[in-house]
Structure to design on (443 residues):
């Protein structure tokens, strides 16, 4: 019933697709983290309007399906700004916009774990706010957010499969293309599923390991 | 550029039908998935080594393979075995299986958050595990489960949009249909984004009020 021989001759293509999946997710994660820091700044802003815009953005991203966000970036954004985006760029942008909202939440949660006494101590020592942030707060924040950030990256890799709908040739789209050649859809998607599972399961094992280590350090 | 409301008002019937299907599929698969999740969690905790290992394999498979791949596999594999079901039924099956894997983890975490001494005390009193589960564990874990179940509900609503890839007539698919005819992605995508946003926000609001009702003592403390 299952015939993998034909599908498996395309293994190099599958691996390329997996590499693109990882690359696209990594870029989206990177840009998303930068935007996430921006959102965090919005949330801590002095002006209510800025805080409100940040909260609205986060709520929108968390409340709508990624596939709709991808369509918006790919089909709607070009009409608004007048630039046609190639699928790959639109895909990376959509992942960035999406992960930014989740990263901002991770950062916000991480900050709440840093006691107010540290800011006060830094102030009492006469440190400038910039020094306080870069030398005291940020190092602790980065350590605290590593497990949830790895988890967010895992979610992004999983979500990146949806980019296949706008013809980004990542792993899922590769499987679809190969299915069109071999006429063996189940086998093609099985291979893709195995590759996804290897990547995602190792990421979630890593998250679990990091969480346990962080818990141990705190105890 | 102009925003043409007429495109939305002309096609609202189609969008409403899709929205209805989205809500229907999620409303059916959520309790199904959750019930299966309870069984899976109990098997994983109490079912002996082999069944527990099988459950954790099931859970990890569903959690570590993208939903899009899962539905493609289902969509192409079922006909291979001669099974032909309507797209909505296949979708409900896929969403339920997905929800069951996640809720199994939620329920397991909730039960494990309660100290085992309580279960032992129950046994010492001569209660059966199911009675302990119903009378001792469930009342306590509700507060833990509700926020997680809300997240799962919202995730499920969002994941259901992916079903458009296998031509299930839910909201996103209907929107793509309308856009195919009217060439107005801006209006239609804005409309469905707002519909999804409204639906998930509504779920969040309902859950918060439920949380207050279930645990008035906690709500009061949080309000103070």
């Amino acid at each position: 019933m299952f015939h993998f021989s034909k599908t498996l001759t395309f293994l190099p293509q599958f691996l390329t697709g997996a590499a693109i999946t990882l690359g696209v997710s990594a870029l989206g994660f990177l840009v998303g983290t930068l935007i996430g820091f921006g959102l965090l700044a919005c949330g801590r802003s002095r002006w209510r309007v800025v805080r409100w815009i940040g909260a609205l953005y986060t709520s929108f991203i968390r409340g709508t399906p990624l596939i709709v966000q991808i369509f918006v970036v790919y089909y709607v954004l070009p009409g608004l700004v007048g630039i046609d985006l190639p699928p790959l760029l639109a895909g990376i942008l959509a992942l960035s916009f999406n992960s930014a909202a989740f990263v901002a939440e991770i950062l916000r949660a991480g900050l709440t774990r840093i006691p107010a006494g540290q800011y006060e101590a830094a102030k009492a020592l006469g440190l400038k706010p910039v020094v306080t942030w870069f030398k005291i707060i940020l190092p602790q924040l980065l350590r605290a957010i590593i497990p949830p950030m790895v988890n967010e990256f895992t979610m992004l890799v999983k979500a990146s499969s949806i980019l296949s709908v706008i013809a980004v040739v990542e792993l899922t789209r590769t499987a679809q293309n190969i299915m069109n050649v071999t006429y063996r859809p189940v086998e093609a998607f099985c291979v893709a599923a195995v590759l996804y599972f290897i990547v995602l399961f190792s990421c979630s094992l890593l998250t679990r390991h990091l969480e346990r280590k962080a818990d141990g350090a705190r105890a | 550029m102009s925003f043409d409301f007429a495109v939305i008002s002309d096609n609202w019937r189609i969008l409403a039908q899709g929205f209805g299907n989205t809500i229907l599929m999620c409303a059916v698969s959520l309790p199904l998935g959750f019930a299966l999740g309870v069984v899976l969690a109990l098997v994983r905790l109490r079912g002996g080594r082999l069944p527990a290992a099988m459950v954790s394999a099931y859970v990890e498979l569903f959690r570590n393979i993208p939903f899009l791949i899962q539905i493609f596999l289902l969509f192409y594999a079922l006909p291979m075995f001669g099974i032909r079901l309507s797209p909505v039924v296949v979708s409900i099956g896929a969403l339920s299986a997905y929800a069951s894997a996640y809720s199994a983890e939620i329920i397991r975490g909730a039960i494990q958050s309660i100290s085992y001494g309580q279960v032992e005390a129950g046994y010492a009193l001569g209660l059966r595990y199911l009675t302990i589960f119903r009378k001792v564990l469930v009342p306590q874990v509700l507060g833990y489960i509700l926020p997680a179940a809300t997240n799962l509900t919202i995730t499920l609503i969002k994941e259901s949009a992916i079903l458009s890839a296998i031509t299930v007539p839910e909201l996103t698919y209907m929107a793509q249909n309308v856009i195919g005819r009217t060439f107005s992605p801006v209006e239609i995508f804005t409309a469905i984004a707002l519909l999804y946003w409204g639906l998930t926000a509504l779920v969040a609001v309902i859950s918060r009020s439920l949380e207050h009702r279930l645990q008035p003592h906690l709500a009061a403390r949080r309000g103070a």
